[in-house]
C-alpha cells in the first residue's frame, strides 16, 4: 500500500469537492498517494537509454585523467612569457594524444603538442600553431601578448572529479548521460525496473483494427494514443484490448490487470451514462474516487487503488473522449507514473508566448487548448489554436505542437496577450 491511503489524503483537504475539483488539488492528491516501486536491474549501457538510474553514480576516475592540450600548437612554461616581449623557444620534442612527451621541459624550451595530448611536465600553457610568428623544427617565435599563462590547457578532472557524484539516482538517462557514463568506463548501469502498466478501452461501440465498423461504432483510438504515450515514457505495457460494457467482463479485466501490473489505465465509462458500469465495478474492487475535475477537456476521471487476490494496483479511469484521454494522461497519469518509476525529473517548463488571435475560455476551469507555436515576421514566438477544440476532435492533438494552458481563474484571451504553452517535443 502507499504511504497514505487515498481516503486519508482526501480527508486532509479543505474544500474538497469531487463534483468540481480544481486540477491542482487532484494533482496534489495523486502526488501524495503514489510512491516509487521497488526493484532494479543492471543493464548494458546502451540498453539504459531512457531508463531511470537506481543509484547515485560516483565518478571512479578523473575525466580528463590528466591535464591536456585543448589545441594543436606548442606547450610551454607560462613563466617564459614576458609582457610586451616576443618569446623565442627551443622545441625539445613532440606530444600526441595517447603518446605524451616523456621528459621535463626546462626554461626556454617548448614541445610541439596536439589536441588531447597530456601536458608535458613543466608546461602549463599552449599557444595554438596559427598564432606563432615563425617556426622551424627546432625553434618557435611567439608574438607578444598572444597567450596568458594557463591558456588552452584542460585540467585533470575538470569534467568529472574522482569521488564526486557524476549522476544522481532518479535521473532519466539521456544521450549525454550515456556518453558521460562511457567516459567513466562504465559498461553497466543500475536502473529501476520498468513500471508495468495494463490498459484497456471500455465500450460496446468500440471496434478494434481489422474489424468491420458496424453502424454506430467507432474504431478504438484510445488504445493507440495510450500505447504511444506509455511507450514514450518507458513503461512495460500490457495491452488488454477492448472490454465490453458488461459487469462480469469489466470485473475480470480489472482483476487480471490488477494481478499483473503496478498501474491500470482505462478509458471510457467514467461518466454518468447508463452503460457506464466501469465506475460501479471499480468502486467494488477498492478505494476509488470519482471526480469531476474543473477542466476541459478531461472532466470525469477516476483515481484510486484496487485489489484482487492479494495484489493491488493504482487505477486511472480516464474519460472516453479521445482528446480527454490524452490530456488527462499528460496532466494526471504521467507525473504519477514518473514518480512510481522513481524518476526525479523536474516538471516540464512552460513558455510564455503571445496569443496570435483571441482565445475563448470559460472561467472556473483550467483549459488545455491545442496550439501551434510559430514565429511572427519579426521572429517573435506566437501561438494559435488548432481550430475546433471539441474533446472528440483528435485531429486537434495531431496537428498541434504544443498545449496552451489557460489557468482556472482566467477568462478569455485577447490577441497579443501572453499565454502559457507546453511544448510537445523537446530537443532531447
Ligand atoms: N450527462 C453528462 N454527460 C457527459 C458528461 C457529464 O458530465 N454529464 N461528461 C462528458 C464528458 S466531459 C466526457 S469526456 C465523456 C466521458 O464519458 P465516459 O468516460 O463515460 O466515456 P464514454 O461515454 O465511454 O465515451 C465518450 C466518447 O468517447 C468515445 N470513445 C470512448 N472510448 C473510445 C476509444 N477507445 N476510442 C475512440 N473513441 C472512444 C465514445 O464513443 C464516446 O463518443 O462523457 C460526457 N458526457
Ligand atoms: O472531459 Mo470531456 O473531454 O471535457 O468532453
What does this structure look like?
With 428 residues, the chain is α/β, with parallel strands linked by helices. The protein is built from 8 helices and 26 strands. A 6-stranded mixed β-sheet has the order 7-4-6-5-9-8, with no helix packed on it. It has a 6-stranded mixed β-sheet with strand order 16-13-17-21-20-18, with helices on both faces. Helix 2 (23-33) packs parallel to helix 7. Bound molecules: ligand LQZAQKY5 and molybdate ion (MOO). Residues 201, 203, 205-206, 218, 220-222, 267-273, 276, 299-300, 319-322, 324, 391-392 line the site of ligand LQZAQKY5. Ligand LQZAQKY5 is lined by residues 201, 203, 205-206, 218, 220-222, 267-273, 276, 299-300, 319-322, 324, 391-392. One of its GO terms (cellular component) is cytosol. It holds the Pfam family MoeA_N. Catalyzes the insertion of molybdate into adenylated molybdopterin with the concomitant release of AMP.
